[in-house]
Amino acid sequence: MKRKGLRFYLHIYRKILAQDIKSKMSYRADFIISTLGMIFTNISGFVGFWILFRNFPSINGWTYHEMLFLYGFSLVSITPVQCLFDNNWSLRQQVYSGDFIKYCFRPINLFFYYQSEVFDIKGLGQLAFGIGTIAYSWSRIGLAFTPLVLLKLIVFLITASLIMIALQNAAAATCFWIQNSFYVLDLAFRFKDYAKYPVTIFSTVFRFIFTFIVPIAFIAYYPSLVILRPDEIPLLSWLSPFIGIAFFFVSYKIWMRGATRYSGTGS
């Protein structure tokens, strides 16, 4: 069989995306309410920081606007998993009902086919709020803005997002092996709430866990240091793009191994 290239998959994805957005926009009230709900949820986080820093001028050397930058950075970096990989939440039901088998008979990449079926457009509201938070905190901190800095920001945001995508992929794929996989996926998703804080505020044990076991420190903390504190960038910050790519690749292999096992056994 001829191997399909990037152009083919982009063409297919545009068609799938257009159909999915059309179906969602037919229920406009649901879309508007869900989007507003997500925006207000993010605003509550913003207000939480404001209340906290009314009582404390800084937390372990981190100022209010630096924490806001981390918060905005984390919101933007988790947007891709919200928009592009939301179908992972349905994987467990598809596998247990047997409906997943339909994805195994298409002459295209199984992972791509399954994930591209759903696009959560509500995540765009989160993206806009995150960009606005980064821009506001950026101006208040007085960070330099050059084309090179902007390029670094984009590169490190993209690679940081791979960590959250990888966490969700690996957690969702556990449904191919265990029954109560929802709790694994839910736990992995909840870890994102810790990504908006600098890892230095946690104890040594949690610092190690959030860096080397469940690497949520690479969702915002380490990559954002390249922009926030350019004069004291740790090695892990520079390594974060490679760690993001490697972690995503491993999670993809886990997901595909589970899917191949499923199609092979007919379970």
List keywords for this structure.
mainly alpha; 71% helix; 2 strands; 267 residues
Could you give a short description of this structure?
The protein is mainly alpha-helical.
How would you characterize the overall build of this protein?
The protein is mainly alpha-helical and 267 residues long. It has one domain. Helix content is 71%, strand content 1%.
Question: Which SSEs are present, and which pair or pack?
Answer:
Elements: H1 6-25, H2 28-55, E1 58-59, E2 62-63, H3 64-84, H4 88-97, H5 110-115, H6 123-141, H7 147-173, H8 181-190, H9 204-213, H10 221-228, H11 235-265
Helix pairs in contact: 2-3, 2-6, 3-6, 3-7, 4-7, 7-8, 7-10, 7-11, 10-11
Number of domains: 1
Distance between the termini: 26 Å
Tally the helices: 11
Structural class category:
mainly alpha
Number of DSSP E strands: 2
**How would a crystallographer describe the biggest sheet?**
2 strands, antiparallel
Question: How much helicity do the residues have?
Answer: over 70%
Low-confidence stretches: none
Can you write the helix and strand succession as a string?
Answer: HHEEHHHHHHHHH
For the biggest β-sheet, the strand order reads 1-2
